Amino acid sequence: MASASKAMLIVSTYLKDMYQVNEELKSMTEEVTSTMRIQATLLAPLSAGIVVSITAIIVQILVILGKSFESISSQLGTSYGTVGDIGAGFLFSIDNLRKIIPISAFQLVVGVYMIEIVTMLAIFLSSIGNGEESFMKRLTIAKLLAISTAIYFLTFFITYYMFTAIMPISKLLIP
User: Fold this and answer.
1) Rounded CA gap, 43 and 151, in Å?
2) Potential cystine with 53: which of 7, 18, 136, 159 (Cβ 3.0-4.6 Å)?
3) Rounded Cα distance, 41 and 118, in Å
4) Which DSSP string corresponds to 80-92?
5) DSSP string, the chain
6) What are the pLDDT digits (tens) for 40-70?
7) 67: which residues sit within 8 A by CB, 6+ positions away?
8) What is the pTM of this model?
């Protein structure tokens, strides 16, 4: 009976020490995991949404400017003067905008990049917090992808409509 009680005391001491080590490990990794979670849920989708919306606005402005320069060149003819010839080369290089990547393809590339980043961060977060449990890993990936995708689209639409409202593109057309 004495040896059984001694064994129970040793086991309880061992379990108490394991609990303390587990809590210390959680506190040590808490800063890293919270930073990773913020990166996956906020920073990656916010930056991706802003980049795509600003790129869409810039491409729209450049296409409108290209069309405006074409109409100006048709009105002016071919004589620009000595300084005008130099500037005309730059202005009409904007006409090559038809060769750039479409916004939908750019959005697809940035979206795939964001999904990869969020998935990697979710796998790391799940591995740190839950070990190699596959169900928790898939659950973490699904939650973070759903949140980050919603934030991405909200950021894209809000930023796009905010900038187009401030700077109406239709007023850039030169009569």
Assistant:
1) 10
2) 159
3) 8
4) -HHHHHHHHHHHH
5) -HHHHHHHHHHHHHHHHHHHHHHHHHHHHHHHHHHHHHIIIIIHHHHHHHHHHHHHHHHHHHHHHHHHHHHHHHHH-S--HHHHHHHHHHHHHGGGGGGSPPHHHHHHHHHHHHHHHHHHHHHHHHHHHHTT-HHHHHHHHHHHHHHHHHHHHHHHHHHHHHHHHHS-GGGG---
6) 999 999 999 999 999 888 888 877 777 776 6
7) 173
8) 0.72
pLDDT in tens, 70-86: 676 666 655 555 545 55
Domain ranges of the chain: 28-172
* Concatenated DSSP letters of 62-83: HHHHHHHHHHHHHHH-S--HHH
Q: Taking Cα atoms as reference points, which of 173, 144, 146, 159 lies closest to residue 38?
A: 144
Query: Is 148 in contact with 110 (CB distance < 8 Å)?
Result: no
Contacts with 117 (C-beta within 8 Å, 6 or more apart), sequence order: 39, 40, 44
Tokens of 85: 């010839």
Closest residue by Cα to residue 54 from 130, 175, 166: 166
